[in-house]
Batch of 2 targets.
Target 1
Amino acid sequence: MTRRTFHRETEAVRQNDLIAATLDSVAELGLAGATVREVAFRAGVTPGLIRRYFDNKERLVAAAYRTFISDLIAAAEAGCGEGPAQTRLAGLIRASVTAPVADGRTLSIWAAFIGTVHSDPVMAEVHREGYQAFRDLVERLIGEVFAERGTPASAQDIHQRAIVLNALLDGLWIEISMGGDDFSRLNVVQIALNSTATLLGIDPADFKD
Amino acid sequence: MTRRTFHRETEAVRQNDLIAATLDSVAELGLAGATVREVAFRAGVTPGLIRRYFDNKERLVAAAYRTFISDLIAAAEAGCGEGPAQTRLAGLIRASVTAPVADGRTLSIWAAFIGTVHSDPVMAEVHREGYQAFRDLVERLIGEVFAERGTPASAQDIHQRAIVLNALLDGLWIEISMGGDDFSRLNVVQIALNSTATLLGIDPADFKD
DNA sequence: TCCGAAATTATACACTTGATTAATTACTGC
DNA sequence: GCAGTAATTAATCAAGTGTATAATTTCGGA
């Protein structure tokens, strides 16, 4: 009886592979389906190996959540690009309502993790960080847009508008990713841009990316 | 060795108790914590009994999800009350961003269940029904509001506005329920009403409940 | 080329889970 | 009051879980 062959990998590669396998498992089978054995199988590895790179399964799942969220925010942030604040905000909105940010797989993973936040302090902390990062990004952009238009607003006003815009983007993201409606016939980007302009008191015709 | 005493209950009462115990378990311990034993304990009953009222655990969880969603929609709908459409819409919005609809426990349960929707067809169907019911309610109210104001809109226009308003309400509901911000200092109802009015092209001063 | 350290596998363990079944109890109709 | 029925308990089972550990293999450095 011969053992299966294997080849060594660096710590970074193995951790990445294990995290990727975890996210795949969560996306397809839900959090309950992301067992140690399932993850190991998808990573082409033996269950016992996981414990060499992560103290326990809880750490692995938390690490997966952390990279998932930071990748998600990075993808949205990448949509901002360069240029005037208004263009960057429009880019962020476009990125938020189109793939790969807005898509079924992303929503599935997000949903699975979000369900653990309330009863798991570690996951709650990971969530809080990521959420705040996105919220701060939106708030900062709104402030810059107003300043750019020569109509600077109070910090409180900007804060409230950030709350509302953030809520709208979250909601649209969920709706679109869920795919309940037939969004293929709707120009979701246009809808998102128009409603954002309306909420911010900007002429929609003046708000494009 | 004497057995523990018990008393019989009607099928309806036992089912309600078991569903309530399931929702309590999910709210406090997450879906993973809602084991057959935990639910039975909270219902003051023995694990084996569950199988007399629900074919299996999957059915119990699905039933719990169904009553949770229909109760949630009923609570929101109750905020509508009577009167002109604009008042009813304002009532729905108020109800959506205040307790008991918007609160931590409700969000926890929602989040836990939503995570199963993608990988569990039964849960997906339960979700779809409830989601559509709320969306239809919002869309119908918007249509009535426009008709009432003497500015009837096309079905497509109403549909798009419903998508946006629904997204805003979902997002606000999540933000508020999550409690990340210090919403106690903010008048969330006023914020929600104002942004809704803005999105619908109504004078905010003219939109109260 | 070969040795030693480190990575990986294989196996096993203790525990929890959902499910099953027989024994017991409470209640209903007579 | 009593018998029969149906609800409930108690005890058990097999499967799956995360974890621990010893045996094996790989691979870089002498």
Note: The domain at 62-206 of chain B is CATH 1.10.357.10 (Tetracycline Repressor; domain 2).
Target 2
Amino acid sequence: MKELINKIKSSIELSSEAEEYLYSISKEKTVSKGSVLIQQGQTVKKIFFVNSGCLRSFCIDKNGKEHTLQFAIKDWWISDYIAIHSDELASLTVESLTDSTIIEINEKKLNSIHSLFPEFEPFYRKNLERHVVSLHKRILNQLQLTAPERYDLFLEQYPDIEQYTRNYHIASYLGITQESLSRIRVAKAKK
Amino acid sequence: MKELINKIKSSIELSSEAEEYLYSISKEKTVSKGSVLIQQGQTVKKIFFVNSGCLRSFCIDKNGKEHTLQFAIKDWWISDYIAIHSDELASLTVESLTDSTIIEINEKKLNSIHSLFPEFEPFYRKNLERHVVSLHKRILNQLQLTAPERYDLFLEQYPDIEQYTRNYHIASYLGITQESLSRIRVAKAKK
DNA sequence: GATAAAAATTGACCTATGGTAAGAAAACTA
DNA sequence: TAGTTTTCTTACCATAGGTCAATTTTTATC
């Protein structure tokens, strides 16, 4: 919990009441590698803040192939935002790629923090804005870069993630097969 | 201006002071087809709300190819959010695809509306959340669908946009060449 | 540390989409 | 509406990346 509170405090002034409220709606958890926190098709009530380890969210398409939407490591948030914000069942699965410690927060309760403690709004807004920026960049990258370029950029932007992931996780994030990623890695090593 | 105020009021209670403030920072404009509202490389200070017509934002890659990030029609917002929220120069160009009427708002001033009129926050937050959801969906579609499937989905999701755009605008949004889109359209017509 | 399971690599072949260039059609413009 | 420019289509070939199957390497488990 300290990590989350500190992160928030580095961005805004948080009254002790607000801090207490946050504590009251949060639950620290240890999850083991392979745990599924959100299951495609079920209702989504929680969002997760990562203290240590690595999680990912992905969907499974009609051919059974996985497509990774997001990785989350220390200090990142993860959930199925499509489900949460459109009140639908989960279209994503969120799983832990390592033994991880996370903070689980009920989304409805987190949402009422805005009316209870308006001071929290700017923090939340900034996070959303940064999120939008990163999504815009990812879409533009997907549109204009080749697979090897996207892989290079991934390694550059997220140097800390590779240690937690299997290659096929990364391939499914980049939008290529694991075989293609393997060939890209070989070509890269030869240079 | 009415359109924007009404849109906000359909979502939240807006005090007359807040409404007045909004008026004071907004400027209604008529722009003609082909006008460039934001130019790649320049500083970005405005965001735009569309009353009529159609705009798009796109980047130009190192080979001179255009990649469309977003279209905006009636009631949509558009700008270069990457530049605005990371305080960078524009990496996007925003142009009007038709004669359009828009509301131009200074982003810094719009941003201070939150401290001046906290009632505005939920409206802004909801918009951001919806935006995130649509971006997540777009990324997942790009990862799992073929080009013809993405085109079908585009027509289904944005039936009103096609009338304003050239095929190569849509192709550059879908991540394919205009030649490929042309072939897809032919194949579709034959069915 | 031996064994089993999972992941990564490799090779042969395939397919969707891209590139180029030319001509046809449509959309502006005078 | 004739002329010009832009956009769209089409044909042919090129290529990035996908598929499938076999093999090797790595990781997990007992």
Note: Chain B has a mean pLDDT of 95.
